[in-house]
Predict the structure.
Amino acid sequence: MKRIFYIVAMAAAAGLSSCEDLERELVTDITQQQVNTSYTFTLNRITSLYTDIPAGYLQIDGAMTASATDEAEHTLETSNVQKFNNGSWNAIDNPENLWANFYRGIRKANQFLAESDRVDLDQFKLDPTPSAQTVYLTRLAEIKRWKYEARFLRAYFYFELVKRYGGVPILTKIYSVDDNFADVKRNTLAQCMQYITAECDSAAGNLPVTYVATDLGRATRGAALSLKSRVLLYAASDLFNTTAWAGGYANPELIALTGDRQARWKAAADAAKAVIDLAGTGYVLNTNYRNLFITNSYTLPEVIFTRRNAADNTFERANYPIGYDLGNSGTTPSQNLVDAHEMANGTRFDWNNPVHAAAPYANRDPRLGLNIILNNTPYKGRNVESFTGGRDGKGIVNATKTGYYLKKHANENLNLLLGNTSVKSWNLFRLAEIFLNYAEALNEATPGVADIKTFVDRVRTRTGVALPALPAGLSQAEMRERIRNERRIELAFEDHRGWDVRRWQQGPQFLGAPLMGVDIVRNADGTFKYTPVEVEKRVFEPKMYLYPIPQGELNASKGLVQNPGW
Amino acid sequence: MNIKNYHSLGVLLLLGIGGNPTAKAQGIGKDSSVQVMPMSRQSYQTPIGYGTQPAWKISSALSTVSGADLQKNFTANLASAFYGRLPGLTVLQNSGEPGADSPGLIGRGINTFGPGRNLLVMVDGYESSYEQLTPDEIESVSLLKDASATAIYGLRGANGVLLITTKRGTASPLIVNFSTQQGFHTAYRSPQFLGSFDYANLYNEGLKNDGKAPLYTPADLAAYQDGSDPFFHPDVNWYDAVLKKTAPISNYNLNFRGGNSSVRYFVLLNAIQSNGLYKNAGDMNDESINSRYSRFNFRSNVDINLTKRLSASLTLGGSVEDKANPAGITTGGIFNSLATLPPNAFPIYNKNGSFGGTSALSNPLANLLQTGSYTTNGRTLQSTLRLTEQLDFLAQGLSASVAVSFNNFFRSYSNKTKQYERFSTTKGIAGDTVYTRFGQNTSLVGNESESDQYRNVVFQGFLNYDRTFGKPNAARHDVSAVLMYNSDSYTNTDNSTTAIQSLPYKHVGVGGRVTYANSSKYIGEFSFGYMGSEAFPKSRRYGFFPAASVGWIASNEGFLKDNTTITYLKLRGSYGLVGNDQIGGSRFMFEQRYPYGASYFLGTTNAQVFGLAEGAAASTDLRWESEKKLNIGVELTLAKRLDISLDIFSHNRYDILAAPNRTVPQYIGVTLPLLNQGKVRNNGFEATIRYGSKSTAQLQYSVEASGWYAQNEIVDNAEAIRLYDYQYTTGRPIGQPFGLEALGLFRDQAEIAASPRQIFTPVQPGDIKYKDQNGDGIIDQNDSAPIGKTGVPTLTVSLHPRLQYRGFDLDLLFQGVTGTTAYFGGSYFHAFQNNGKASPIALDRWTTETAATATYPRLSASNNLNNYRFSSFWQRDGSFVKLRSLELGYTLPTQLVEKVRLTTARVFVNGTNLFSLDRMEGYIDPEVGSGYPALRTVSAGIRLQF
């Protein structure tokens, strides 16, 4: 009997311990259910979508996109941005590979749109008190508005993809990793343009023109219309209306539009005008050009939509001239860009003009000195010494190779040794661009109308720049050149140049031209001698008008087609 | 516990012996720690998974070392005694710091590129910390290697299992052992640095190379050379200033072993103290008791027959360890400052006796003496109660048992910190000394809130069957079987443990093994584990892991029975499946997560708004890693004196976690989940040859030579597409270093002009020239290719001669490795980098005069991005041979010791890590390149048995 007892006792002990189960005891994470039903989590989700907009300050391995164009040379040779300039980028190694980043934003937007209706507001809905009902209605309206913010941002992400890759897959499905990807195809360029503009229209119809102070920075109606303006301008431009560069590419519908191009120019002009004419926005050109790019610029009425950031100083660390505390030179503007600045009287600068050559920075477009740090001009309490042997010049490791340093975007007043930071926001749309969009499109749609010159002049003659107005009677071609140059100067270092040159089909002329700098010698009398020098040979091949679809995507998704030439 | 208490405990242990009535132990005429001949192969009850088997019956692959062998390495860390002793076990030495000297243990090479590479270590059958155990309480340590040996561990066996078995009582009169061992550590190959004169000269040269003006004037150099100005031109060897040449280590052990038919016991007390090499700071300042490790172990293993059929065994082992370190600065921090601080930066003490220092640089000696102390107190307790009932009334040979085990580790921290003032000095106008103070003296501030702990609780139930049918010499059938149930749950936390990490880790499962032997010739065994873990989704939580093995003892066949040449021959083979649930990734990743990510900033005040989004896609089908293991072994004895054994194995690990980079397009827009898709292949062998004297010879000796080899290869890791074939890690060993291939030093400008452009920084003659792997004319990161071998050696060899002649005994253990690469990195080798100093290796630098013979690049006083990047230039063959232990003993004649009622008395001298033969050019230890140095220990001791 006793034996049996032991056996039973042992079996019982074993049985008891087997009650130990393998379930986790606590759920320590936020669950999908909570995310879908909580108002706060839903707010956090829509906010998270904004963070997928790249801030252009250090976009390519610590460099600006400007250094992948004729605007600048990045000082560090080890930065991957150099691959754009020496032609060693390709489908496997693209230093500006934002493909996954934008598709992540698109997925998040798709999820948000699919799931944000499930927010549980019953706490307020079922409470009959007026205050609860107010909260209920406010929140209901907020959730509705957030969806249009999501649609605007999704359209923005798609356009960022289209300008890099041409037609891309428009994904409405939320894929999981074990789905079949073989059927996914790139949508045609026409479908993409159509989709993005329709989304802009829809967002513009439902987003507010302005926000209360705490929501400043969210997508507005003006932002949606501005995106549409840019999209239609690109759609009408040379790049997306020809396949000549693509050498018999088998899928022209992925890279070019067909049909009535004049109508596209007209639509582009109309879209820009719609922003300009939008009531209640208060958009106006800023009277202080430099302030548009430094501290707290997001409050300025010229700014339509901007990528907001925390207080920071990494940009200043990367871009202060080498001779300043903790400066690393970073983006150094090119002679090509400097030379594109007009004289203050509106004529062209010319090195063959001995007066110009002797004092190349005198009497120039004021934006030259506002965007670029020139030799022997004051910066942070002393004059910059970009000359050979100077504190910031040749002879110092990692000194500028072009003879210039970047002034735009950098907050001059930070003491990096003390760890000073400042808030900067990266302008995505501002009124000056819309004016130039309008003028450019109008000059193609209806050459000669007065608005063309009017709006270019508004930019040129704005307070703080005050160049003379364009001469009257310019031909369409002359006007086109002036608008393009105006755009080059006004929007320098704002991530426009590389795309503008591509859409104008001027790659070999600008992106393939040698990057120039200036050799600065200090004479015995303290004056300087400036000689343009070649800094770097640049490589541009026609295939570079579009980025290659990442090779990994082609391998994993067999239905995708590579872009021409890659 | 201070040093006085510690030694008085040793005296207490010694006194404790006097009170014990001793019975003459039978058959013991020598110290049990002296073993020349191996344990008998045939009958030795070898520990296997959840049981034991006589050695002849084993058809799986395992290797075993006895506790007595481990006593030959005098160390406070049990694992540090494993070097070269267990074929198949690769032991990687780390720091020598007492209490922080755990080596890395790898069983049969690395089989996964996932993070879970650790052996499962079981102490007396339960997972527990083990490095605190003392060799005197160890009966044996076994490494279970193949599938047949580890399948019963199911999900947890794939990396191999290390079984540590502690001593238990025997049904024999009481045996009392007392031993003490006293010795000292010295640093093995402490780094040497250049003095101020050489430093300043070379620094000036580096500046000149960089195109800058020299910093040190001829007058400075003269002052450094003649040492005439020790305060303004100091020349400090910081290693000597901070470290002692020697530090003591001592151990006392007392154990009792005995019993009768109803009660058997093993009781042990051990005390060890190992001091660090830091200057005896405690003597100079009571608040600074620096770098000391002391530990007390006790054990009480008792087996009781409660009734005729019911027995209980109680296993209790515990330890208390105290550790002290200087506060405020970690060991790494101290050695980093010793290795970088230039000899002329400031004097140790200023003229007025205050500590030297500058605003940026603190004084390493003052950091030791004046910043307080971090003391920790760690406690372990291993406790198991097992009840066994013989069930012969149901079936003969059947028994059942249940066990419950609690194994704990807890460490509390007592951090007492303060600050001190240091002064930088400048010469005043009148030649006086002007002092500038940095920091201030403060009183001690305490923090008692930190702790770490590990604890587990295990329940087990067993059904055992063991019976022999038939006659011993005719057809004999040995049948044994075990069926077991196991459930365990453990928690591992410290101050940085997150909520999700603090949840218990659990396993539930059953396991079993059936062994059949026919006539002691043919052996067949089947074993399995069926186990589940909380780490996997509910629908696929349990896995089944079967293994089978066969053995054939050919020497028991008629045709070999009387062969005098082949006296033993056994062939065996096994194949099976085992798992590894330490797969990496985050816990419970089979559930979708929504973590907070980047924030955004809104409103006129740029207010932060949190962002939340879908995390990495859930791994909904998450599984464990699985491995198919094949093992074939042969054991052969020739003429009863030459033993040869060979095991070859082939491991195929699959279902290793990897992100599906090649098969899932990025446009799906979610961070890819980790999926079970990686594969690794690992093959190797273990071979041992032992030759011994005749057991009757007066000179007893044996020489054992072993070698074990494992070479792995990543078969598939779903690697994303790369630009060049040589950039793939697939097809290469796990941990393959990638870097630039150095071609030598540039001779002149002409060679630079004719070579591909190196983009890291402008190069000049004397800089390292790299190979352009892709032929694009530019040397950049794309030219990074596989260079050298991994940090884990592929081949370990050991040589273990032992001899005994009359009372004398000698035991040596050499361990060597090859198939690994060491790296000359950090401030010791990279002169002046990161504001560091220079070591003698920099004397062989490139200059225009020495261009033909230079072995070191030209100097640069600033950080040189070309020369000091990871490249083959700084790699060296990591092979070495070390004398891991040497012990010479003398056992006093029995007639003599019997007069003082002893049964044996042995005195011995011991050396641990005495020397290394390697390719490190004398600079560093091949395994411990920086930080706390490797230690060499010399000691003497006495072992008494009553």
The first strand of chain B starts at residue 45 and ends at 48.
